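To the wet lab folks,

You asked to see what we're planning to order before we commit. Fair enough. Below is the target structure as tokens, and below that is the sequence we designed to fit it. If anything looks off to you, flag it before the synthesis order goes out.
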């Protein structure tokens, strides 16, 4: 499974509630019994979904069925991404009803069909919630969106049986970096290639001063760090602990780039607090203009494709212990911005999206927490 960087966000405390299956789910179970009588080919797919989602891609809400605003926001980001739904529509459908209930990609596909093929303004994610609970994902609790995004992605990747689709899913979201660790005494260096689902960028620099722009946050993340004093590492060549320089170099960026703004951090009192300060982020982002040559480990043809356009923002309002999530998403078929606030969906302007930059004086104001950028098509 893909792991997030150790710099990622925290997960809040959990308290379990119960949920009972809806009448809709009971009706679907009857249909599953009929399907189970005659096993179908693994490549069979619901014909009504085949092609419909990418063509319509309507903005449809999701009902909040008990602290599911975080899940709802992330599902909208997944399902409004036509590159992701193209992969989702090609999954192998499980044969028996029990497997279908526990298969996250299939339940997500059913939810997509319900959203796109009906006329409702909002639908319930209940069946998918039950599916996630079957995989020990505790629901109906306050969640950290970055952690839940990683959990959903790992379940999707694990349950997609087709190796080609797994590779396409990885290509769509996975960031490749190279970690460097160099001794400052003998200059010996170790390198390690690793993958990340998101770039967890700090909002504060090494002096705890607020960074002013997203570009500054990215530069801070890729800036080499000196490991001295208590942070020194053991050098095998020197035979003792020595000062080291630690750095991360960018190797590859995916089609859909996820940036995690680390708004939750430990303060001097050892309690986690939220940074609500204003952090502007651009609509267009060119990594070649942000990073230096020394911060990259990529060929020119790879770096030529590092030009992005903002696709979605998952925003958080509230505190570390209680809050609410919503998503601002640019429809790739309409080129219009929408705000997905659970079951309520409305078209918004770029000025509305910019309202998630944050403000230190707004206690309950919306602040961007996850940014999703889409790679621009070559001219």
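Sequence we intend to order:
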């Amino acid at each position: 499974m893909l792991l997030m960087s150790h710099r990622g966000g925290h997960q809040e405390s959990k308290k379990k509630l119960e949920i009972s299956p809806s009448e809709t789910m009971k009706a679907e179970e009857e249909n599953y019994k009929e399907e189970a009588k005659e096993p179908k080919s693994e490549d069979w797919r619901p014909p009504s979904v085949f092609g419909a989602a990418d063509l319509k891609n309507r903005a449809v809400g999701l009902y909040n069925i008990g602290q599911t605003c975080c899940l709802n926001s992330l599902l909208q980001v997944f399902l409004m991404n036509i590159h992701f739904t193209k992969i989702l529509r090609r999954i192998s459908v499980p044969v028996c009803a029990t497997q279908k209930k526990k298969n996250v990609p299939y339940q997500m596909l059913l939810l997509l069909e319900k959203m796109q093929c009906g006329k409702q303004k909002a639908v319930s994610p209940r069946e998918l919630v039950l599916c996630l609970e079957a995989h020990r994902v505790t629901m109906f609790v306050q969640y950290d969106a970055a952690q839940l995004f990683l959990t959903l992605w790992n379940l999707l990747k694990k349950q997609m049986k087709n190796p080609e689709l797994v590779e396409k899913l990885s290509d769509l979201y996975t960031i490749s970096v190279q970690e460097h660790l160099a001794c400052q005494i003998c200059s010996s260096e170790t390198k390690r290639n690793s993958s990340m689902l998101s770039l967890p960028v700090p909002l504060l620099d090494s002096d705890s001063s607020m960074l002013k722009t997203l570009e500054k946050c990215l530069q801070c993340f890729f800036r080499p760090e000196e490991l001295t004093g208590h942070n020194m590492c053991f050098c095998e060549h020197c035979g003792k602990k020595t000062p080291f320089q630690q750095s991360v170099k960018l190797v590859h960026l995916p089609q859909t780039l996820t940036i995690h703004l680390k708004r939750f951090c430990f303060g001097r009192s050892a309690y986690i607090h939220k940074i609500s300060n204003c952090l502007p982020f651009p609509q267009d982002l060119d990594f070649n203009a942000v990073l230096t040559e020394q911060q990259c480990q990529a060929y020119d043809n790879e770096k030529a494709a590092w030009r992005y356009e903002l696709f979605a923002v998952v925003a958080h309002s509230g505190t570390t212990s209680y809050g609410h999530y919503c998503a601002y998403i640019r429809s790739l078929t309409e080129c219009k911005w929408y705000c997905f606030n659970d079951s309520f969906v409305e078209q918004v302007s770029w000025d509305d999206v910019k309202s998630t930059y944050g403000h230190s004086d707004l206690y309950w104001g919306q602040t961007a927490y996850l940014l999703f950028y889409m790679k621009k098509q070559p001219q």
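Structural context that might help your review: The longest strand covers residues 307-318. The longest helix spans residues 23-37.

Thanks,
Computational group
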